[in-house]
TrEMBL record:
Residues 2-27, 58-87, 161-185 form the C2H2-type domain. It comes from the Eukaryota. InterPro entries: Znf_C2H2_jaz (IPR022755), Znf_C2H2_sf (IPR036236), Znf_C2H2_type (IPR013087). This is C2H2 and C2HC zinc finger. Keywords: Metal-binding, Repeat, Zinc, Zinc-finger. Pfam families: zf-C2H2, zf-C2H2_jaz. One of its GO terms (molecular function) is zinc ion binding.
Length: 243
């Protein structure tokens, strides 16, 4: 029998007694504080065990990291750190952790397929005949956003090259055209098909990230990723058929 006189506790085994001496706050300087419930612990390991076991603590036991919210923890658990890069681009074979990562890659215009944001938008409109995830066009085809326009020397106002939409000035014409090609002035052409949601997005990748969050119940995260292993069309088609 092993006895702790300070705590007036008995232990059948030396291992139990030793664990008590190592982890009991009565025998430690309490230098390790829980970020969520303000409890103090004598060792980092004791705090780690508390984080793992405690309900409502946003903690990744594998990485020993805390997060500000359940959403942040969920995003971390769905990152390449934990899910790897199991989704391959069907064109250039680049590897990505999520369907939204693949979509961002294709929208960027860097893929060998030649796809970019504008071409994907056109593809989605062709797939979505009933405007489930795309909004009806309110302008002429090809002019639904500023990225189809090219600024010329006429944009020089005497001080800089001026964007006629937001009046921001640029030192170089190339800078203005890069600004025009960015999503900053695009319409929000995508909409969440979830009932009662109404969230709108400028790019397909934004909608995909929203669906991956499972906040509207359109698809489960795993279903989106499974569909993305065959390209973006399968899971987009499932979103379109949601209603």
């Amino acid at each position: 029998m092993y006895y702790c006189q300070q705590c007036d506790k008995e232990f059948i085994t030396y291992n139990g007694f030793n664990m008590h001496m190592e982890h009991s706050s009565a025998h430690q300087d309490l230098d390790y504080e829980c970020e969520f419930c303000d409890r103090d612990f004598g060792t980092e390991q004791a705090r780690h065990q508390h984080y793992v076991a405690a309900y409502g603590h946003h903690y990744c036991g594998d990485c020993r990291r805390t997060f500000n919210s359940e959403h942040s923890l969920t995003q971390h658990m769905r990152s390449r750190t934990h899910v790897g890069t199991s989704i391959s681009c069907p064109f250039c074979k680049g590897n990505y952790a999520t369907a939204s990562g693949l979509t961002i890659h294709l929208e960027s215009g860097t893929c060998s397929s030649g796809l970019n944001r504008q071409k994907i938008n056109t593809m989605m409109r062709q797939m979505d005949k009933n405007n489930v995830i795309t909004k009806p066009m309110i302008t002429m085809p090809g002019y639904e956003n500023a990225s189809n326009m090219v600024a010329t020397e006429h944009a020089w106002n005497g001080d800089g090259y001026e964007c006629y939409l937001c009046h921001r000035e640029f030192d170089r014409l190339s800078g203005l055209n890069n600004h025009m090609r960015s999503p900053v002035h695009e319409q929000k052409i995508y909409q969440c098909p979830g009932r009662g949601c109404g969230r709108e997005y400028k790019a397909l990748s934004g909608l995909v990230q929203h669906v991956e969050s499972e906040s509207c119940g359109v698809m489960r995260f795993g279903q989106v990723q499974a569909g993305a292993r065959n390209g973006i069309e399968p899971f987009v088609g499932r979103m379109i058929s949601y209603r």
